Structures are given as structure tokens and as C-alpha cells.
Amino acid sequence: MFRLKSSVVIAHITGWLICLGLPLLFISGQTGDRKALSILFSTDYLVFLVTYVALFYFHTTFLFPRLYFRKQYILYFLSVLLLLVMVNYMRPYDHLFSRLRHPHGETRWRPPMPPEGHGPEAMEPPVRVDIVSDFLFLLTIALSIAIETTHRWRQTEKRALYAETRKTQAELSFLKAQINPHFLFNTLNNIYSLAITRSDNTAMSIMKLSNMLRYVTEDTRDDYVLLESEIECLRDYIDLQKLRLTTKTKVNFAVTGSPGIKCIAPLVLLPFLENAFKYGVSNHEPSEINILLQTSDNSIHFYCSNKLFRITPDTNRTGIGIANTRQRLDHLYPDKYELQISEDNGAYAISLQLQV
Description:
This protein is α+β, with helices and mostly antiparallel strands. It has 2 domains: 6-104 and 127-160, no CATH class; 200-355, Histidine kinase-like ATPase, C-terminal domain (Heat Shock Protein 90, 2-Layer Sandwich), CATH 3.30.565.10. It contains 10 helices and 7 strands. The longest helix has 66 residues, at 131-196. It is rod-shaped. The chain starts with 5 loop residues before the first helix and ends with a strand.
């Protein structure tokens, strides 16, 4: 459905009042306000007004979009030339000013009689050109072209922005989908091991997994979630991982500050925990995983460190999760995050600072 915005209607009305009011201002300066007011309600001024308004909208809505933008250039220029000939034949400005030269009730000026021996054809110019009407015609066409080109440029820019937004949303959904099955697969493997050994913690781990599934499938549909919900998901994940750990591994998880109503991108911290539990746990040597989440008024700081036990080609799988996380951070926190990953003497540490 074709709908007009009030701002567009007001702009068009204002523009026409200014453009078509200029002749009245000029006439008023030549004859006075009373004469200008009489011309305002004259038939010649109505013809002058309708001619250029119709010309503008006919060119804007039909000629320019349906001929020029469809690359029918010859037909377009012939149509414009035909309109110019018609305007020059009508001479709307010349007829309007004839009321100024010949006030109502006065006898119009007649040309002098031709000299004896010469016909009346000798006194009439072959073609009468109304320069002002032609100039106003070209000005109207140029204004129409400028407005329609600007409108189409803005529409193209909006479509490009919309396409870019949809592309970004699709990328984020794809990256999120890559992360979610990864940690769910690992968690299901852990629960399977508990069920095989008939552990008493099987029911509790299923409940925690249920909480995580609910969080992943329902709460993470938006780009951002409450930080408190993300923290609960991390706690459930850590508790599920602890079920398979031995006494040789110690996990320290602390949250400082108040999450309040702060928001964060969902599942953006989980890949770091996955790496810590995947490569920082040993059944033969003591290990320690330290996880710290600090919140302040305008920032969130996540820190995770662990000892690196397994450095094998399988580490490339970890790189996929980190690469995806970097892409999500680039999309959701442009110039508002700082990620530092360090590896020194077999110790692996991640520091992520988010501005919220």
C-alpha cells in the first residue's frame, strides 16, 4: 500500500509555496500588493501553477523512473524535449506577466501598423521563445531528478544496511549453532559415563543439563541475556565437569561484584571453560583451574587460567571455538572488548574485558 509520510507532504507543500510564490513577490515589487493579490486568483496564475506542479510529478513518478531508470534513454529525452516544446508553446510565465503589462480594463498594446508595401508577416517573429518559462522548466526537471535520485540512493542504502544486518544475524546464529552442540556433546558424554557406573550423581547431572538446555534453546534467542543467567549456566557446566574429575584437579570459581541487570552475549564465555577442562585436566598430575568473573558499573572482566597438559594436533578443534568467539565479539562488541590469550611455560590464561 502506498503511504505518504507527513514530513514528506509538508516538505513538498513548503517547497512549492516557496518556488511558486517567487513570481508573486516579483510582481508585488513592481505593482503593489493589491495587484499581486488579484493575479494570485487569476486564471493565468492557476495555469502557471498547474503546469509546473503537473510537470514535476509527471517527471518524478513516470518519466524518470519508468524510462530513464529502465535505460530507455532515447524515449526519455524525446519525451522531455516534447514537454519543453509544449511549455514553450503555452508560455505560462509570459501569459502571467501579460496581466502586469496590460491591467484589467485597459486596452492591450497593439503592434504598430506595418510600413506600406509590407505584409503583417514581416512584423511577426517566426518563433516566440518564453525564456523564463523554459528556465523554470529546466529548473523543475533538475529538481525532480535530484529528489528522485536522492530518494533512490537512500532506498539502496537502506536495503544494503538491511542486507548487512541480516547477514550479521545469520553469521551470529551460525557461530552460536557451532558452539552449542560442542559443549552439549561433551556434557552428554559425561552423563553417559555416570550412567554406566551407576553414579548417584546421574539424576542431579541430568537436572543441570536440563537447565542448560532450557537456557540454550529459550533464553539465548536474543543477542544479549542477563549476566546472572549466564553465570548460572557456567555454574551448571562447572558442576557437570566436576562429576568426572578426580581429586587431583581443583576448580576455583568466583564471582565478584553485583551482576545486577547487566547483559552479556549468551555463551560467549563457555568456549574458554571448555578449553580449560579439555586441556587443563590430568589424571596423573595435580592440576588447578582458576575462573574469576569480576563485574563493575560499566565492565565485565573474565579470567581463566589452567595448566596445559595435552598439546596435540587435536588442539585445532579448540581453535575453532576461540575463532568463533572472536567473531561473535567483533559483531556484538565492536571496539568494546579486549581479549588477551597467553601461554607461558605450560600455563594457559585468558583475559576478556567487556564494556557494558
